[in-house]
Amino acid sequence: MMINFCQFGAGRIGNVHADAISANENANLKYVVDVNGDAAQALASRHGASVSSVGEALADPDIRAVIVASSTDTHADLIEQSVKAGKAVFCEKPVDLSLERVNDCVGIVNAHNQPVFIGFNRRFDASFAKLKSELDGGAIGKLEMIAITSRDPSPPPLEYVKVSGGLFRDMMIHDFDMAHWLLGEVPVEVFAYGSSLVDPEIGKLGDVDTAAVTLKTKSGVLCQISNSRRAVYGYDQRVEVFGSGGMLQAGNRSETSVVKSNADSVQSDKPLLFFLERYADAYGAELTHFIDCINNAVTPSVTIEDGKVALQLAEAAIESLNSGRPVGI
Amino acid sequence: MMINFCQFGAGRIGNVHADAISANENANLKYVVDVNGDAAQALASRHGASVSSVGEALADPDIRAVIVASSTDTHADLIEQSVKAGKAVFCEKPVDLSLERVNDCVGIVNAHNQPVFIGFNRRFDASFAKLKSELDGGAIGKLEMIAITSRDPSPPPLEYVKVSGGLFRDMMIHDFDMAHWLLGEVPVEVFAYGSSLVDPEIGKLGDVDTAAVTLKTKSGVLCQISNSRRAVYGYDQRVEVFGSGGMLQAGNRSETSVVKSNADSVQSDKPLLFFLERYADAYGAELTHFIDCINNAVTPSVTIEDGKVALQLAEAAIESLNSGRPVGI
Amino acid sequence: MMINFCQFGAGRIGNVHADAISANENANLKYVVDVNGDAAQALASRHGASVSSVGEALADPDIRAVIVASSTDTHADLIEQSVKAGKAVFCEKPVDLSLERVNDCVGIVNAHNQPVFIGFNRRFDASFAKLKSELDGGAIGKLEMIAITSRDPSPPPLEYVKVSGGLFRDMMIHDFDMAHWLLGEVPVEVFAYGSSLVDPEIGKLGDVDTAAVTLKTKSGVLCQISNSRRAVYGYDQRVEVFGSGGMLQAGNRSETSVVKSNADSVQSDKPLLFFLERYADAYGAELTHFIDCINNAVTPSVTIEDGKVALQLAEAAIESLNSGRPVGI
Amino acid sequence: MMINFCQFGAGRIGNVHADAISANENANLKYVVDVNGDAAQALASRHGASVSSVGEALADPDIRAVIVASSTDTHADLIEQSVKAGKAVFCEKPVDLSLERVNDCVGIVNAHNQPVFIGFNRRFDASFAKLKSELDGGAIGKLEMIAITSRDPSPPPLEYVKVSGGLFRDMMIHDFDMAHWLLGEVPVEVFAYGSSLVDPEIGKLGDVDTAAVTLKTKSGVLCQISNSRRAVYGYDQRVEVFGSGGMLQAGNRSETSVVKSNADSVQSDKPLLFFLERYADAYGAELTHFIDCINNAVTPSVTIEDGKVALQLAEAAIESLNSGRPVGI
């Protein structure tokens, strides 16, 4: 069934989702809402949609689903208003930077019977999805260790760093979700080290740009995560899981398979530049999943509870970094 | 500028091109023409186009360009009618199975000032395009040798083999074009060996399913091509160029980057299944190039002359196979 | 100059060193000493050496150097007796399982002007050596993070586990040395998680078989280490260093370069089986280095101080594991 | 049983074999013979051997085997004299540059019951040996195509080119043997293209430095070989075999596994420099095989007949190059 969408937010990630809607034969973008009227108009025009307001959009019975891709501080409110209006919700991570606010939001969501999907796009990357599928299928026996590497090509603007909630809530939250998903359980303890090595200005803001976090589950499975806000060779996104029967690794992807051998070395492509390139297909795949959930009345594979767990792990990491001790969940 | 297209042919490759038109923001599919009315209607409906006839479509001044994706024996006629009607032409390879017929068609095309593009899609594969660009940029000095490997996952139906013109005209023609493109000149001699090892029925039809061809240029550059109609591990499409300053290789692509290490071995993905998967992006890229040529009044990078050269090389290979001797061009 | 050696210890690693001596054109094995007379005789015969005693061997002025490859609890004594006797010492790791004992030994060594080399063989692996050399040469700018993976193919016998000093002193000690070497400084803090997932019997002995440790330097550089006593796909020994200008990775080595592509997957060799295979060349290279140090009166690149640091880090890791908190050095 | 060797030839390859003898616990080098007395003396001294003459060495009943590593024009004579004297023979390729002379030599060898081994070292490379073993074990079903790439890092001195017998007899002869070995049968036809692209002086000597040869068997299996006298990225030695059930590839080896990712690209090691590096272990392995054949009275896996076939293929390739036509065997 064709689903009519209203999209809140017309920024960079908003454009990604609007493109995904246009490319999906079961989706139609009817409204775009953004505090920046020009951005809303530009995006709406490009996709044959209309500019609207939150109230008008949620009141329209034609609208079956919303995409929340606006600024983080609006996410929880928009989720709540949308489910109350009977709309299915696809919300960008994070639900909120405050765990308390997320808890309230979870309550509201649970009280309304609507599909609510949190956009942890990496779960829909073909390589990570295959790794998870092989793991669940027993390809490496019993899971024992995980290593997750996430490095951005370059740090965001300082203005963004200030409102981002910090590296753990903004960047490593993806890795916390990846860990939670692969572990299949919520870790019981978190230990974090962090440094400001990339840009001292980030350190002055009280944030870190380099971090190493370890998670531990009840059964003793261990997970190591490393993050850096800068990798000059491109977006570095790798996962390795190790078990009683072997190891699964999901590596980076590159634009071409060209290898040049000359008098210096053997040279191949750098990893794809950043998330828009690496996860281009994943954005389409998560939208397709969301639409399938609506049409088949199935609970999305990434719920608001998952969003809450990722934030809990981020909060615990921050507490660990500040206290210098491991923190229980 | 938005280009209105009429597409001749609603089969498998026709669907690929229609999808590419839909995905291209500068293209619109107005008409679909096919002798199979149901196929035409299905494709047209899926893309909001109308079913039409050759005559009606070519008479419509709104139509700026045509895609020729019908059966091979109609290509030359449709190219000629289309350029006479003032339409730009994107034609699937080959132009025709007869070199004489191609020569006539080239004459007609040259007499009409319309962009005519031949769909040698592999030139638009990101890896092969980068290899070519590096080669032309001098990355490996002076070109000395080329090796091209092309293997299909499984042979086509015997019914298709009968009308295909044989392995050299139907399958290796892509490699002849690749060789011609990379060499930057027309080879002066061709030597071919061929066998029927995959399916004896193919041999009974007078065709081969396994072939090794060598090309030589005036300056002594050598090119080896190998083809097989069956590769159980997937579509094997690789190019290697070697020069005074090094080597460039373009390898296969796979669906994921997952590597599994277990007690048996270290296992990674097979190559992508077939041309629809491997060249998915290339089909979009060649359409974009064609549209750019129309809008900027530029000659396409793959002309009908290139189509003719590829067929000449195929004819020479067949003559070599039959005579047991190298054949000059 | 030809160096005459006495070797203490005729077990598995003793055989490795005796082979290295035989293969080195500047070395000669004169004596073998072992409490197991048969083992001593067998090794001596194989290399044209004589069985001897500690006293006799150290009293022989022809002996310029000793290899200490006996059981761990004899290392410190043999080092001390040897340097007092004016012999250069090549000692297998660890110096001792007790930090106090190591400190005493360091004192004795410092009081005698003899080359004392600790056999951290991994530093002499061609891949790790190149990684270190590139790092020191500035290939990736300023060092920011390290990740070290060490997994043995299968756990040692429980009898060995009992006297090994535990995973941190016996196995991860190599990784602590690798970290110390690559960091170029002694970390200031260690945090350890460990589990018994491979074999519950190991856990019953109070040891772990799976561990994740994080190190932090004064300047904030972070190092993650992971260990497992079992990797069914072979000996997994990898190092990754990350800096302001890029990343260096040293991966596993395999016996052949053969890749098989079939209907299932693309399969390549597993990593080399275990340390004898992976570090076969490294054992020769470290002996060559030791001989060069003697002949050129140069301090070995791995000193007894390095042995002490590795043990300090192991002790700190054990304390962290037991206390559940990071431990300062 | 310990085998006493006399070695004819004290040049570069002679040193390789003498080192292999020294490293082999079942072999002893007793005599070295070379027309260059200084070279003979140096090699003999380095290995505790004596300088001798052909007559004296062959008359010594202690000598069980000879290594023929002298100049090519002495090979056939030394093989004949040695088997007549009751010695086992390990002869470097080629047996002779003249097929007639080789035929005579085969006759003499067949009339004397001695193991005669021809040093096609590549068969003992771990990767090629595994590829052959997998092929024979049915890993890829029925063999259909082979591709062999052989490129030297740089051309030999022109003085050597003059006496080498040309690229086909001197360099590609290794690939002809590889093809013969992998095919498991003697090809029935050869077609050769060759060019002088690397150094025009080689062309002036009537030789080629770049060549592409195709072989065909009775059953239609095809084999493509490419050679170049120069590859600036190192010694390029690869084999690919393709069959009804898949593909086996044996690639190059490198000194380390280090991968550097920086702002430019992802860089790994070049292939090992040349044959001494790439085939270091193969030289030891072929000697071990030869000694096993002597001790177990087994026919060597590479016979003088194999040497003859390789030369036949080279002769056919030369005739094909000169005549411009395929040549039957």
In words, what does this structure look like?
The structure is a homotetramer of 329-residue chains. Chain A has 329 residues and is α/β, with parallel strands linked by helices. Chain A has helices at 12-23, 37-46, 54-59, 72-84, 99-111, 126-136, 158-163, 167-170, 172-183, 200-204, 275-278, 280-296, 304-323, and strands at residues 3-8, 27-33, 50-51, 63-68, 88-91, 116-118, 143-151, 189-195, 210-216, 222-228, 236-243, 246-250, 258-261, 266-268, 327-328. The first copy, chain A, folds into two domains: 3-114, 3-Layer(aba) Sandwich (Rossmann fold), CATH 3.40.50; 123-279 and 309-328, 2-Layer Sandwich (Dihydrodipicolinate Reductase, domain 2), CATH 3.30.360.10. Helices cover 40% and strands 24% of the residues of chain A. The first copy, chain A, has a seven-stranded mixed β-sheet with strand order 12-11-7-10-9-8-15. A six-stranded parallel β-sheet of chain A has the order 3-2-1-4-5-6, sandwiched between helices. In chain A, helix 4 links the parallel strand 4 (63-68) and strand 5 (88-91). In chain A, helix 4 (72-84) runs parallel beside helix 5. The relative contact order of chain A is 0.16. The mean pLDDT of chain A is 97. Chains in contact: A-B, A-C, A-D, B-C, B-D, C-D. At the A-C interface, strand 7, strand 8, strand 9 and strand 10 of A face strand 7, strand 8, strand 9 and strand 10 of C.
